[in-house]
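Troubleshooting log. The previous structure file for this entry was overwritten by mistake, so regenerating from the original sequence record. Sequence copied from the archived sheet and checked twice against the printout by T.R.
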Amino acid sequence: MRPMNAQTSMICALLLIGLGVNLKAEAAALNYNFEDFLVGTAENPKGPTGATVFVFPRGALAAIDVRGGAAAVREQSSIEEGNSWGSIDAVVLAGGSTYGLDAASGVMREILKQRANKVDFDSIPSVPAAIVYDFSGRSNALFPDADLGAEAFRNAIKNSVKIGAFGGGANVTVGKFFGREYGEKSGQGAAFYESEGVKIFALSVVNAVGNVMNDDGTVLAGSKDPKTGVRLSIPQTLLKKPGASFGDVTLGNTTISILITNAKLDRGDLKRLAIMVHTGMARSIEPFHTASDGDTLFVVSTYAKGSTAPDKEVSVTRIGTLAGAVMQDAVRRAVKPE
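Regenerated output below.
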């Protein structure tokens, strides 16, 4: 069969559009070199809604930092400092508000199958999860259930992840401080850094009430005036209109994120790393950690579970500074995937 020329291709495309066929552009993706985990996404386009699943075949150590005032998290206690183990098998970032936590049940079901239905103590998986509220702008009650979580798990691959309106970021927006009509589309963004064998991967599902900010302090996305098309600085706008500074803020927001490294860090270091990175994200989201956000960050180290990381001590202060910059890049790619 001969390949179509450009004119024929265009005619076919126009015919498909006339028939109502959606010619969606190929998904943007981040490709990287980090063999210690897999990541998969699944979406229900009828929502739209979705889930992003990180799989650690050899397990990993994790910490969590919850800063938002309206967070919903599953298995938080499994990775808090007081827990005896702190190890995980997978992490789920999903839409669907608290209903979406059910996606983690599907992941656990798939791991149970992989482990031949073994239920001895060492075979029980740990699958923490966090969610965003993504029911805005749609009239249905669809959410990432166990089946969608299982699908995302089965879709998991190494060294590539979709960015944009996929997975947990299938139906999210930013910059809704002054009302949803000011919001702009967002998604999930990711970034990767490697130096001297130490690797840092970051992914963030950004559904913030605040704006996403450029590194120079200007607004990258959010608070776009529906009348003028101008993006507004939230604090500067409030300072200019003090009489309107204390009203209600739009509910149903949250930024959920994960940072993965192969660096040699213990659980105390991981918690400190989580604090540093989560604090640093305020450079890319303004305001952040509000009462109407559920901001949650997972930080994971694969070093102790058979990673190929270099066997050297790493300063948590130095890696935290680097990781903060990587995560800020991930946040910005959530609204500008290209």
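The helical segments are 6-18, 103-114, 146-154, 234-240, 267-280, 316-335. Archived copy saved in two places this time.
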